[in-house]
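Run log // design_07
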């Protein structure tokens, strides 16, 4: 199976344009999971821009908006 990076990039909502993992979702997920975090695409636009990708931040924001 070939890498879908170009397709993934077209949908990526992460604004960390300097990150080498953008579009390589497998690396992105691994990196954040190892750090107790979630990828930027799990967050709202405002949440994503905080660059706080912690699970705690995700749960806090989720509870504020649901
Ligand atoms: S969510 Fe994290 S690893 Fe994924 S592209 Fe953005 S900054 Fe890079």
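design_07 sequence
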């Amino acid at each position: 199976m070939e890498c879908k990076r170009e397709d993934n990039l077209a949908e990526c909502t992460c604004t960390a344009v300097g990150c080498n993992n953008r579009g390589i979702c497998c690396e992105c997920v691994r990196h954040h999971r190892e750090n107790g975090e979630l990828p930027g695409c799990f967050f709202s636009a405002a949440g994503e821009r905080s660059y706080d990708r912690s699970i705690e931040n995700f749960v806090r924001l989720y509870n504020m908006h649901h």
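The chain has one domain: 5-65.
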